[in-house]
Amino acid sequence: MSNILAIVGRPNVGKSTLFNRLIEQKKAIMDNVSGVTRDRHYGFGEWTGKYFTVIDTGGYVHGSEDTFEGAIREQVELAIEEADVLLFVVDCHTGITDLDKDFANVLRRSKKPVYVAANKADTFEKGLMAAEFYELGLSEPFAISAENGSGTGDLLDGIVSHFPEEGIENPHQDIPKIAIVGKPNVGKSSFLNALLGKQRSIVTDIAGTTRDAIDNHYTLYGKEFIITDTAGIRRKAKIDDNLEYYSILRSLKAMEECDVAVVVIDATTIDPLTGLQAQDMNIISMAHRAKKGIVLMINKWDLVEKDSMTSKRLEDAIRQRMAPLNYMPMIFTSVKDKIRIFQAVEKVLEVYENKTKRIPTSKLNEVMLQVIENYPPPAWKGKYIKIKYLTQLPTKAPSFVLFCNLPQYIRESYERYLENKMREHFDFTGVPIQLFFRKK
Ligand code: GDP
Ligand code: GDP
């Protein structure tokens, strides 16, 4: 990636306000749904035809007073390491503080361009205060107001002049995005931590800090992916009394932007006769309706008393109860004992492949027209239904249009038959597919 701008500075100077202004997506980012807050730290901005990535590093560090020094160092080092340009935000209302000076000392040593944004210069008079920040010994301070946007244009002119390339509109576009969802206590955070343990990611280890990065980048077997982290949606105190509700809300939020959802299920709560619990089913059908790829991760497998047939039996029981929503792969894991954790990720990447692949029209027709000829749609009131041709639509999740003479008479059972045949011939494991019948 290139064209990266990192925002640094002490708390309350207006970093996140500026971040939101730069990426102009305020609504998507700031959600204050009844006590659930989410901090996102990556966003994409554009200025005079140049695209860039903005990192709000402040969000990674939640130091208390005594760990602050470490926190600053960590935050700034991160920014220096990751970014092409650093944007140091200070506050015109309060003027220079000791903490600002600490930041400036570290920044001055970096080899990267540093811009100083003297924020909260909402009026011309306030803007005059910006001159005070010359004292930091960095570059000329830009008086800006993150809140009303004044001064940000000049600042951006300067910043983008350091970006050599035009950049791409959304560098994350073609990287699989994974959400880890599920009921409380099934092992979602443990799973994430197990993955983080192996991979370098922009996350701080300072004691007492909350890891709430939403987009965690990984590379596994040379493949990049992003985990949109539900743990990033912090639960505020006092709402624990409605844990279930919030976990559903969290799952929904996390799922919004993902390509593949890993639905984590506690193996000890699965009934060999009745299958998954209703709440698990709710989350799965939410993902299905949202047309997400789905992997079922049956976790805490270490706690289940088992023989060599147990997983097969359980899988069969679950699939039977879930029909027709039984196209998802299942993987039996123990996050605690680190069993099949990476296989789970591999499954996810497979599902992503299935979700994004395109079946050539010629191949599709060759296979499916034969299937249809072998078992044509049953006639309706003496009328013969003929499917002549089909093609895949350029949608995010696989969908197909089938052209026929009397689309209104295709029955659901026949549609299901076709879907099953499609799945038999082309691997769509873990992916909801849609068939549309159109008149031709
Ligand atoms: P951060 O902790 O550095 O991310 O700071 P925030 O973006 O959360 O802002 C801290 C406070 O400063 C909030 O109450 C903002 O509304 C306020 N603030 C941010 N930018 C401006 C600005 O340009 N003018 C004024 N007057 N207030 C601002
Ligand atoms: P979350 O609420 O879904 O994020 O669940 P957590 O990751 O916080 O895990 C809930 C509890 O289950 C914690 O006490 C974990 O240590 C425990 N746990 C997670 N995965 C496993 C596992 O594979 N086996 C066992 N025995 N316990 C686990």
Automatic annotation (TrEMBL):
Pfam families: KH_dom-like, MMR_HSR1. Keywords: GTP-binding, Hydrolase, Nucleotide-binding, Repeat, Ribosome biogenesis. It comes from the Bacteria. SUPFAM superfamilies: P-loop containing nucleoside triphosphate hydrolases. Transmembrane segments: none annotated. GO terms for molecular function: hydrolase activity. InterPro entries: G_ENGA, GTP-bd, GTPase_Der, KH_dom-like, KH_dom-like_a/b, P-loop_NTPase, Small_GTP-bd. GTP 2 binds at residues 182-189, 229-233, 299-302. Residues 3-167, 176-356 form the EngA-type G domain. Belongs to the TRAFAC class TrmE-Era-EngA-EngB-Septin-like GTPase superfamily. EngA (Der) GTPase family. Associates with the 50S ribosomal subunit. GTPase that plays an essential role in the late steps of ribosome biogenesis. This is GTPase Der. It comes from Flectobacillus rivi. The gene is der.
